[in-house]
Amino acid sequence: QVQLAESGGGLVQAGDSLRLSCAASGRTSSFYTMGWFRQAPGKEREFVAGIRWDVPVTYYTDSVKGRFTISRDNAKNTLYLEMNSLKPEDTAVYYCAGTSNCLGDGCRRVGQFNYWGQGTQVTVSS
């Protein structure tokens, strides 16, 4: 059993920064890849960033490249998402996810991830 718990969301102004954390517990050794997704009201859940659990290889959706940084601390079983230069269109519930089904850059679809956190709200005001 694996549990993921996000924290760090909040209300910020455009241009501000936030750091999300995701604490993983349980059988984390089963992870191949972890990622961050987000879901805005009325929209489908979308991929934001991913990282391999074995080596620090990262990949991003185009809209956050250069602004967001995904990282992980394996010793602490914690995933992070550093978000800079936030925009109102970044407003969404952000979800941490893990997968034992795929590895690396090819893991971008919701259905490829089999472990999910409960989500944390990020609101960016203009």
Give a description of the structure.
The model has no long low-confidence stretch (mean pLDDT 95). It is built from no helices and 11 strands. The strands form 2 sheets. Strands 2, 4, 5, 6, 9, 10 and 11 form a 7-stranded mixed sheet that branches. A 4-stranded antiparallel sheet has the order 1-3-8-7, with no helix packed on it. It is mostly beta strands and 126 residues long.
Could you provide a short overview of the structure?
It is built from no helices and eleven strands. It has strands spanning 2-7, 10-13, 18-26, 33-39, 46-52, 58-60, 68-73, 78-83, 92-99, 115-116, 120-125.
List keywords for this structure.
globular, 11 strands, mainly beta, seven-stranded mixed beta sheet, 51% strand, 126 residues, four-stranded antiparallel beta sheet
